[in-house]
Specification:
By secondary structure, the chain is an alpha/beta fold. Among the domains are: 75 residues, Luciferase, Domain 3 (Luciferase, domain 3), CATH 2.30.38; 98 residues, ANL, C-terminal domain (GMP Synthetase, Chain A, domain 3, 2-Layer Sandwich). The strands form five sheets. Strands 1, 2, 10, 11, 12, 13, 14, 15, 16, 17, 18, 19, 20 and 21 form a 14-stranded mixed β-sheet that branches. A five-stranded parallel β-sheet has the order 4-3-5-6-7. Helix 3 links the parallel strand 3 and strand 4.
Length: 518
């Protein structure tokens, strides 16, 4: 059943049940569906048609989910914009996606205002502001108040686009992975089979809704009739409070969040009753083995489940709770709906135990849909999507039992706090600095974030610049999480005979004696 139609069915079956809890305010299923229908009709009243795209720049809040489901009811494609992006990055995403409208809150108007004149596809009457009266923008609440709550009567097919998830690209531009609606019933059944969850479960949403992880887990949860407690931004102690107050049963998190929980003072952690938690999902980046041990030791009733995948492919492998301490470094075995290969540079499959690039595709005949292109980016699509296979750029090996282990990344991507960061994008900014001759950006170990961004620079002869000046230069041009945390100056960068910078040589001292070298 279509996501929008299933929300209506749930609202009819249990209208008074809590659907969303945000900042202790409860929204019941009847209200969530009512407002989603109003969003759909409001969007349509602005002249936005099925398969058009709407960009959303918001932090987590109840209204974000109203918009996700309202766009689904209108058969309009969601473009969730990372609110941490700088204005230039937002402009590229909105224009590249050919978004017809923008929904924003007051907090991010400062970033949006300078680029509005450059948004070629957004008509002047298609800006919507959530919280406040802004000249030449629709008020979200007034727009909904003047719209019908009748169901639009439209339905998405399995391959119709649900959202376009933008992830930073190696060329310096974000890439938009077009994610289809797919088989919602299969998604819900899969979640139920793995975790044993039902409509009686309470999901704690910790991830930002511009992430594929959060969009998927929230949508599947509401498809299945669950209550979802939404955090605006992750805070370790606040998470514990919410678990205790609402008897949360499961949550999906990234390593940075787990590490922040682990680093809470012991007396703070022990203040809260977390016994209701039955399942925690770990994804997006490797989780230190010591942190896994801590989670398992401190959430006694809770299984730790690990997934590997991405915006382009969804979930590909799974490591269950009973294997977490037995197989350090593993991301699990392939799902039954997925085909996996490890290949060399020529595309030939490598033998068991040898390292190759991780590629995957849906198993032939499997009722599953996933991204098959980068929107309006033929070059990247041709590079990463080949004959149905997605080439991840991750290097891995598989053991005799079929468990996969990530050991490196073919590309130089950095994962910091669950965010994908591509050095080429940062290096492009550094090369704009008049005093910098050469630049290399690498990821180095960080106990809180997994990796942090380091810039290694060669200055032009006779020039002097401080690390703080370099960091400030980047901060003006990049989202905060991409800005280098540290800067080193060297006389020369190690290079191959052809002049390519040897980043492995730069990274080696920092990753020495680490279990995972990335």
């Amino acid at each position: 059943m279509d996501l929008g139609a299933k929300l209506k069915k749930n609202a009819d079956e249990f209208p008074e049940k809590a659907a969303v809890i945000f900042k202790d305010r409860v929204t019941i299923y009847f209200e969530l569906n009512d407002r989603a229908a109003r969003v759909a009709n409001a969007i349509t009243s602005l002249g936005i048609k099925p398969r058009d795209r709407v960009a959303v720049i918001l932090k987590n809040r109840t209204e974000y989910l109203e918009i996700v489901y309202g766009l689904a009811k209108a058969c309009v494609t969601l473009v969730p914009v990372n609110w941490r992006f700088a204005s230039e990055e937002m402009r590229y995403v909105i224009n590249n996606s050919e978004s017809s409208a923008v929904v924003v809150c007051m907090e991010f108007l400062e970033k949006l205002a300078p680029i509005m004149k450059d948004l070629s596809k957004v008509a002047a009457h298609r800006y919507i502001c959530l919280d406040g009266d802004v000249e030449n923008m629709h008020s979200y609440e007034r727009l909904l108040a003047g719209s019908s709550n009748n169901e639009p009567g439209l339905e998405n097919r399995s391959r119709d686009p649900f959202y376009i998830g933008y992830t930073s690209g190696t060329t310096g531009f974000p890439k938009g992975a077009v994610n289809p609606h797919g088989n919602w019933e299969l998604k819900e059944l899969s979640l139920s089979a793995i975790f044993g969850v039902s409509k009686d479960d309470v999901q704690l949403l910790t991830m930002p809704l511009f992430h594929a992880n959060a969009i998927s887990s929230a949508s599947i949860g509401h498809y299945g009739g669950q209550t979802i407690v939404v955090m605006e931004r992750f805070d370790a102690e606040e998470m514990l409070r919410l678990i205790e107050k609402y008897k949360a049963t499961f949550s999906s998190m990234v390593p940075t969040m787990f590490n922040r929980l682990k680093n809470l003072p012991r007396d703070v952690f022990q203040k809260y009753d977390t016994s209701s938690m039955r399942a925690m999902i770990q994804s997006s980046a490797p989780l230190p083995f010591s942190t896994k041990q801590w989670i398992i030791g401190n959430f006694k009733n809770c299984g730790l489940h690990e997934f590997y995948g991405g915006t382009e492919v969804g979930v590909v492998t799974y490591l269950p709770p009973e294997e977490q301490l037995k197989r350090p470094g593993s991301v699990g075995r392939g799902l039954p709906t997925v085909e996996i290969k490890l290949v060399d540079d020529e595309g030939n499959e490598v033998p068991q135990g040898q390292i190759g690039q991780f590629i995957s595709r849906p198993l032939q005949g499997a009722p599953i849909e996933r991204a098959a292109e980068y929107y309006r980016d033929k070059e990247s699509t041709a590079k990463w999507f080949k004959d149905g296979w997605f080439y991840s750029g991750d290097m891995a090996y598989v053991d005799e039992d079929g468990y996969y282990y990530l050991v490196d990344r073919k590309i130089d991507m950095i994962i910091s706090g669950g965010e994908n960061i591509y050095p080429a994008e940062i290096e492009a900014v550094l090369y704009r600095h008049p005093k910098i001759l050469e630049a290399a950006v690498i990821g180095i170990p960080d106990e809180e974030w997994g990796e942090s961004v380091k810039a290694v620079l060669v200055l032009r002869e006779g020039e002097v610049v401080t690390p703080d000046e370099v960091i400030s230069f980047c901060r003006e041009r990049l989202a905060g999480y991409k800005v280098p945390r540290s800067v080193d100056f060297v006389q020369d960068l190690p290079k191959t005979d052809t002049g390519k910078i040897l980043k492995k040589v730069l990274k080696a001292p920092y990753w020495k004696d680490r279990d995972v070298k990335i």
